[in-house]
Amino acid sequence: MCGCRVAACVAALAAVSVALPGAVLALDLNKLYGHHTKRSEYCHPYEPFKCPVDGNCISIQYLCDGAPDCIDGYDEDSKLCTAAKRPPVEETASFLQSLLASHGPNYLEKLFGSKARDALEPLGGVEKVAIALSESQTIEDFGAALHLMRSDLEHLRSVFMAVENGDLGMLKSLGIKDSELGDVKFFLEKLVNTGFLD
C-alpha cells in the first residue's frame, strides 16, 4: 500500500489527522492486510447479485430491503425493486413476441394504442416495451416511459381494470383467442398484483 509496515502506516495517518483536524480519513483494512473483498468477476450462487459500481456480491434477500448494500444504493433503486416483483423481462418479451407471431405485427395496437404498430417498433421494440413493463411502478410511469398518448393510456388502463374485475369479455373483444385467454389474463394479473394500476 504505502511501502511501509502496518504500524508505520497507521502512525503516518495519525500524523495527517493531527495536521488536518477537519479531515475524515478512512483506512481500508482489507487492502492493508491484503484481504480480498467479494469483487470477483462472478458471484457465488448464495450471493448472486453483483453491484454494478463496486462489484460487491450480495444475497437476493438484501435486495429492496430498505438498507443499501451497494456503495451507490443500486440494490434499493425503485426500478430494480419494481422489476424484482414483476415477471422477468425475457419472459415478458417472449410473451409479447408470441402474441405478435400469432396475430401479426399490429396486434398489440389493440392493447397499447396506435404507436404499437409494426411489432412495437414505434415504441422502441419488444425489448424496450418489456423493460418498461418490468421497471415502471405504475401504468402512468409506463405511459411516460414510452410516450403513450393519454387516450392510449386510458384504453390500456381499462383493459387492466377489466382483468382485475374478472371481465374476460374485454379481452375477447380485443381478439384474444380462447386458447390464449388464460395466459393473457395471468400475465396482466401479475402486473396488476404488483401495483401497476396504483
Automatic annotation (TrEMBL):
Residues 1-26 form the signal peptide. Pfam families: Ldl_recept_a. InterPro entries: IDLSRF-like_peptide, LDL_receptor-like_sf, LDLR_class-A_CS, LDrepeatLR_classA_rpt. Keywords: Disulfide bond, Signal. PANTHER family: PROHORMONE-4. This is Prohormone-4. The lineage of its organism: Eukaryota, Metazoa, Ecdysozoa, Arthropoda, Hexapoda.
